[in-house]
């Protein structure tokens, strides 16, 4: 499933069960958009998965609607390109693909 | 919707200048402050000052106000209001959303992606006189069974300042310096919520306090090594520039700065607990 197939707006509780997965190239474009239209009050900072893709928690979608902290960034995005390029998967599946962190013993 | 004028109306007298400055900063960042919260913050400032603790803090955030935008605004950014202000004026929010915060409960981490960047490098701290603490719940509850509540460390994991939660009923387990020179507090159910603070009072006195009481101590000398010139993160540790070991805690305050005596830690705890009680969220 891609983000293009998801109906927005979506509740925060529903979003938290989802992960948004995308390529490093798209992550770079999102970072550029944030620099132009975002602020430090909400920085979408994806985490690298073991397969080389990047992941955000789906609850970031609660901030893209008008009045949200990422509304400006969302409005400026080319959604015809963005939406089909983002894979939506269950949160637990994405978390299972996170690399092992270098915890201290 | 029109704003209730009581939300922003200054008191006729007695508002501590740092509480007033904080409220101004919150409003500038898009948040608001209720009269109840303002009263609590004001009393906290007065208590800290009267206890002689103000210069112990390089940064303190009470994580309060009406919204996430308010909660990102620290109360203290330096050792005094006129001293050099360190780090980011507001905490940089990575991946938290508005729904993660209510004033009644605090800011909720998820143990995997969400963290705050203070902008204050660990190298600003003196390893022989430092504190790092948080107030909240779920302190020992990380999705992986381990989570850093706050901290920064270098690539060798030897030069660190780190406050961790571990497993279901263990809270603080590591603080400061090197892996060989750390305080480890074995499971303390009480420490899964409330105030936990690691304090280095000298090169040979490193301990952890839970709810104002010392629960672990080490006398190992820690005079060697450097703290990393990377900013301290909250809800994770900064592992040489990247977030690591995210925590799922629900944070209601954090602070770091200079070391404290046992009496000072207790006075700080009492002021903090009174503040949290005033918001109905004491743990």
Blueprint of the fold:
The complex is a heterodimer of chains A (105) and B (283).
Chain A: H1 12-15, E1 18-22, H2 24-37, E2 47-48, E3 54-57, H3 71-76, H4 79-85, E4 87-90, H5 91-95
Antiparallel strand pairs in A: 1-3, 1-4, 2-3
Chain B: H1 17-28, H2 35-50, E1 57-61, H3 68-71, E2 92-94, E3 101-102, E4 106-108, E5 115-121, E6 130-137, E7 146-153, E8 160-166, E9 194-202, E10 205-210, E11 213-218, E12 231-234, E13 237-239, E14 242-244, E15 250-257, H4 262-278
Parallel strand pairs in B: 7-13
Antiparallel strand pairs in B: 1-15, 2-5, 3-4, 4-15, 5-12, 6-9, 6-15, 7-8, 7-12, 9-10, 10-11, 13-14
Helix pairs in contact in B: 1-2, 2-4
Walk me through this protein's architecture.
The complex is a heterodimer of chains A (105) and B (283). Chain A is of the alpha+beta class. Chain A is built from 5 helices and 4 strands; from the N terminus they run αβαββααβα. A 4-stranded antiparallel sheet of chain A has the order 2-3-1-4. With 283 residues, chain B is of the alpha+beta class. Chain B has one domain (17-278): Jelly Rolls, CATH 2.60.120.200. Chain B is built from 4 helices and 15 strands. Chain B has helices at residues 17-28, 35-50, 68-71, 262-278; strands at 57-61, 92-94, 101-102, 106-108, 115-121, 130-137, 146-153, 160-166, 194-202, 205-210, 213-218, 231-234, 237-239, 242-244, 250-257. In chain B, a hairpin with a 6-residue loop joins strand 7 (146-153) and strand 8. In chain B, helix 1 (17-28) packs across helix 2. The longest helix of chain B has 17 residues, at 262-278. Chain B is globular and about 45 Å long. The two termini of chain B are 33 Å apart. The A-B interface holds A 12, 16, 40-47, 55-57, 59-60, 62-63, 68-69, 95, 98, 101-105 and B 29-30, 68-69, 72, 88, 90, 92-100, 110, 112-114, 143-144, 146, 157, 160, 162, 164, 174, 179, 239, 244-245.
């Amino acid at each position: 499933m891609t983000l293009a197939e998801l109906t927005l707006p979506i509740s925060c509780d529903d979003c938290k069960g989802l992960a948004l997965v995308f390529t490093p190239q798209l992550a770079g474009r999102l970072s550029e958009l944030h620099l132009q239209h975002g602020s430090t009050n909400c920085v979408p900072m994806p985490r690298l998965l073991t397969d080389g893709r990047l992941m955000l928690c789906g609850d970031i979608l609660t901030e893209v609607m008008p009045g949200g902290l990422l509304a400006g960034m969302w409005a400026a995005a080319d959604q015809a390109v963005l939406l089909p390029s983002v894979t939506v998967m269950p949160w637990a599946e994405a978390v299972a693909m996170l690399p092992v962190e270098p915890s201290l013993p | 919707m029109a704003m209730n004028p009581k939300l922003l109306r200054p008191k006729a007298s007695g508002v501590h200048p740092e509480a007033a400055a904080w409220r101004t900063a919150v409003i500038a960042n898009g948040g608001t402050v209720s009269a109840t919260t303002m009263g609590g913050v004001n009393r906290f400032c007065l208590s800290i000052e009267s206890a002689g603790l103000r210069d112990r803090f390089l940064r303190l955030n009470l994580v309060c106000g009406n919204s996430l935008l308010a909660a990102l605004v620290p109360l203290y950014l330096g050792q005094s209001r006129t001293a050099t202000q360190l780090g980011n004026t507001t905490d940089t929010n990575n991946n938290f959303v508005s729904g993660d915060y209510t004033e009644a409960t605090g800011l909720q981490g998820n143990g995997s992606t969400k963290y705050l960047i203070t902008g204050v490098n660990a190298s600003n701290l003196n390893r022989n006189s430092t504190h790092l603490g948080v107030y909240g719940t779920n302190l020992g509850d990380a999705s992986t069974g381990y989570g850093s509540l706050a901290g920064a460390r270098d690539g060798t994991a030897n030069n660190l300042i780190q406050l961790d939660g571990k497993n279901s009923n263990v809270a603080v387990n590591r603080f400061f310096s090197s892996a060989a020179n750390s305080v480890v507090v074995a499971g303390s159910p009480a420490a899964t919520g409330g105030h936990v603070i690691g304090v280095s009072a000298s090169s040979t006195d490193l301990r952890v306090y839970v709810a104002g009481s010392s629960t672990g101590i080490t006398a190992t000398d820690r005079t060697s090594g450097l703290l990393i010139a990377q900013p301290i993160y909250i809800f994770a540790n900064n592992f040489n520039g990247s977030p690591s070991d995210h925590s799922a805690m629900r944070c209601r305050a954090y602070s770091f700065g200079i070391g404290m005596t046992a009496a000072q830690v207790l006075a700080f705890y009492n002021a903090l607990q009174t503040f949290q009680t005033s918001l109905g969220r004491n743990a």
